[in-house]
Amino acid sequence: MKALVYQGPGKKDWIEKEKPGIEKPTDVIVRITKTTICGTDLHILKGDVPAVTPGRTLGHEGVGVVEEVGGAVANFKPGDAVLISCVTSCGRCANCKRQLYAHCADGGWILGHKIDGTQAQYVRIPHGDNSLYPIPEGSDDEALVMLSDIMPTGMEIGVQAGGVKPGDTVAIVGAGPVGMSVLLTAQFYSPGRIIMIDMDPARLELARQFGATDVVQVGAEDAAARVLELTDGQGVDVAIEAVGIPATFDICQKIVSAGGNIANVGVHGKPVQLHIEELWIKNINISMGLVCTNTTPMLLKTLKSGKVDPGRLVTHRFKLDEIMQAYEVFGNAAREKAMKVIISA
Known about the structure:
Blueprint: E1 2-6, E2 12-16, E3 28-35, H1 39-46, E4 62-69, E5 81-84, H2 94-97, E6 122-125, H3 128-131, E7 132-134, H4 141-145, H5 150-160, E8 169-173, H6 177-186, E9 193-198, H7 201-210, E10 214-217, H8 223-230, E11 236-241, H9 246-255, E12 256-264, H10 276-279, E13 285-288, H11 296-305, E14 314-319, H12 323-331, H13 333-336, E15 340-344
């Protein structure tokens, strides 16, 4: 089979690789029909995730068709259409019992990280019964790919961890795919105001279309000063960081109100400076983490009901053998006006 393989910082190849097979009775082999590229994959290529070693097939998102199942798999059979979760969970360990699937003793985020991932023709999914979801009949496959990772990430690590409540003023720093997912899912909780902050005017315009009440363009104006102006000097109830660089986390520190919350969603490859000398007196909470995907069943229901349409995030489409071109487009998102790419078999 063909696969997109990490070959060290700054290096990747679309190469021939051995097709995966069943290794444990709980495994499922899935033939990929649609996958995508995540910002985390770009972090890996920069060398920000040293646990990823050369030779690893990248990718942790996608939908496909079950090709083969292990003897212990009860919920799926060959031919079933499935959504792949970015997080693998055994469903039995102490952390899984707490719905802390990101820290499963025999899983967590391993696809495209510690085992071969989804940017290939086939992928092996450990603990298939707990790490795959049947695709509802009539669903939009492109929208479903967004439920592998970015939608539950935005919901859990941004909106829920940030404690978004009705009437809140929320600021989202970063209008990329995860920031947009935060924007879409925050609206479930009826905040009074959502301020989107980014450098790219095209993304800010898209954010308005998706429900942002205000936008702030970094570079054209002092982002923190503008947010304070918009909030009469009070700051925001919830500041959500969705980029993963020190400058964007710093904006969150400057704009959070007394009694507010900072929710860090971005993947950071470098340390940030925590201004505890200014924050200690403000009675704020800071959260961060890796998505557990416990909201995926709920998000599947909202997708089926039409309450949310993450398929709107897709801007570019490629065939699987065009994946190197897809990386070029996604890696230059501002130039290409790219949000999320879909790569189809």
